[in-house]
Amino acid sequence: MKITKRQLKRIIKEEKAKIINEGAPYPDAALEFEETMNEIAELLEQAFEIAGRPEAARTYWYNGILSQIDPERYGMMNRSLSMADTFAELSDPDDDDMMEMGYEDGLAGKQSAYPDNELYMNNYEDGRKDGQQGASSIPDE
Fold first, then answer.
1. Residue 68: in which H helix or E strand, if any?
2. Which of 112, 137, 140 is nearest to 125 (CA)?
3. What mean pLDDT value characterizes the chain?
4. What are the counts of helices (DSSP H) followed by strands (DSSP E) for the chain?
5. Would residue 118 be called left, alpha or beta, if left means φ above 0 and alpha means ψ between -120 and 50 degrees?
6. Greatest Cα pair distance in the chain
7. Quick check: 126 and 4 in contact, CB under 8 A?
8. Which stretch, 15-24, 89-98, 128-137, has highest mean pLDDT?
9. Arithmetic mean of pLDDT, 19-31
10. Is the pLDDT of residue 6 over 80?
11. 136 pLDDT exceeds 80?
C-alpha cells in the first residue's frame, strides 16, 4: 500500500496526539505542566545565582535549559520541541485534530466544514481521493 506524505504526516500527528493524551491522565494536566515549567525555570535561575553567574555556565547549561523550556519567552530561537510546545498541545489538543477531521470528512464524502483552514482542506482532499479510490476498487457482486 502506497502512503502519501500528507497521509504519513497525518498518521504521525494522530499517534503523537494519542501519546500526549495517554500521558495526560487527568484534565488539569496542562495546568500542572505549566506550573512545573515555571518551577524548573525558577530552580534554574537559583542554580545560576548560586554558581555565581559564570559565563561558562551561561554558555553550557543555563541558556540550553531555558531554550528547552520556552525559547520565545527566554529570547532564544531553538527550533527543537520545547516544553512550551508540549504545553501548547496539552492546552489545545483540538488544533491537532483538524487534519484528522478533514481526512475523515473527505473520506466520508461530507461537505467541507472548514474551507478556509489549509490543514483541514489538504487532508479533506486526500480523504476524498482515498474514498473515491476505495469505492471504485470494490468489485460489483
1. helix 63-69
2. 112
3. 77
4. 7, 0
5. alpha
6. 80
7. yes
8. 128-137
9. 66
10. no
11. no
- pLDDT tens string 30-76: 788 888 988 999 999 999 899 898 888 887 888 888 888 888 787 76
CA distance 100 to 108: 12
CB under 8 Å to 65, separation ≥6 — which residues?
Answer: 40, 44
Which pairs count as long-range contacts for 113-120, CB under 8 Å and 24+ apart, including other chains?
none
**Is residue 141 pLDDT above 50, yes or no?**
no
List the grid coordinates of 126.
Answer: 486526500
Domain spans of the chain, in order of start: 26-91, 96-135
**Cα R_g (the chain), whole angstroms:** 21
Q: For the chain, give the number of residues.
A: 141
Q: Do 78 and 70 form a contact (C-beta atoms < 8 A)?
A: no
DSSP 117: -
Contacts 24+ apart (CB under 8 A), 85-88: 86/20, 86/33, 87/30, 87/33, 87/34, 87/37
Q: Which residues contact 93 (CB under 8 A, 6 or more apart)?
A: 17, 20, 21
pLDDT at 105 over 60: yes
- Report residue 42 as a C-alpha cell: 525558577
